[in-house]
Design brief:
single chain, about 250 residues, alpha/beta, 6-stranded mixed β-sheet, 5-stranded mixed β-sheet
């Protein structure tokens, strides 16, 4: 038995290949899981639980079929889908967790989070995150008509497509800050941390006081699926090739 983790799938109708790979994962490897954790950005954009599109329904139906097997499935919100709420949870059977959250994973205290909280060098993003997550603003966004929220999401996606290529300096600013990582290890008193967001899959070793700690970073699903499998004995961060399905450019 094993526990699986995924993050940054960025599911959207424009990329049916990614959705197909995720559905195949739910129907195959993940069927024997002790639990499945989705660490944010399951969707490229989630505009609210009242989204009645065929694609939103398809993803929710697949998750419901999976949770109906009795496999505990958990979700930590990402920066693209923090509007996922109770209706989504009720329809899919997925349990919503706060970000960050500590679990006891095979007798090892483990901190799970989306990962954007660790990227403190990106000051403008952190400022925006604090603003957009204010409860009153979330309520205001969800009160907007669905078509307006869809228009906002499309505009944000269009802006991300046309931005200039990121330099190494840009990528460094958007990566996890090492001092912040150590503070999170110390604050939550854990030996292991698992997150996504940075799209830089790797296994890092940190020295936290007199002890060593492990940080595992999940990859995104733009070019291949990224899955983490943890058992009592070991962890395995793996990549899975996307199926040969036509898709639109994202």
């Amino acid at each position: 038995m094993a526990t699986w983790f995924v993050s940054d799938l960025h599911l959207s109708p424009a990329r049916p290949d990614i959705a197909h790979l995720f559905f195949d994962f739910l129907r195959d490897e993940a069927r024997s899981a002790d639990a499945l954790y989705i660490l944010g950005d399951l969707f490229d954009a989630w505009i609210g639980d009242d989204d009645t599109s065929a694609f939103a329904a398809q993803v929710q139906d697949e998750l419901r079929r999976y949770t109906d097997l009795g496999i505990p499935t958990y979700f930590v919100a990402g920066n693209r889908d923090f509007l996922i709420g109770r209706r989504f949870a009720a329809r899919t059977g997925v349990k919503l967790l706060t970000d960050p959250y500590v679990i006891n994973l095979y007798d090892t205290p483990t901190l799970i989070l989306h990962g954007d909280l660790l990227c403190t060098d990106d000051v403008s993003y952190q400022r925006f995150r604090r603003w957009i997550r204010k409860p009153w603003l979330t309520k205001l966004l969800l009160a907007l008509p669905l078509r307006i929220r869809m228009r906002i999401a499309n505009k944000l996606r269009a802006g991300s497509k046309t931005q200039r290529p990121l330099s190494e300096a840009d990528l460094a600013i958007m990566d996890a800050n090492q001092d912040t990582v150590l503070r999170y290890f110390e604050r939550y008193r854990v030996q292991r941390m698992i997150h996504g967001h940075t799209h830089r899959p790797a296994v890092h070793q940190h020295q936290v006081g007199d002890a060593s700690a492990t940080r595992i970073v999940l990859g995104d699903w733009y070019t291949q699926g990224s899955m983490l499998k943890i058992t009592h004995e070991a962890h395995d961060l793996m990549q899975q090739r996307l199926p040969a399905v036509g898709h639109c450019e994202t």
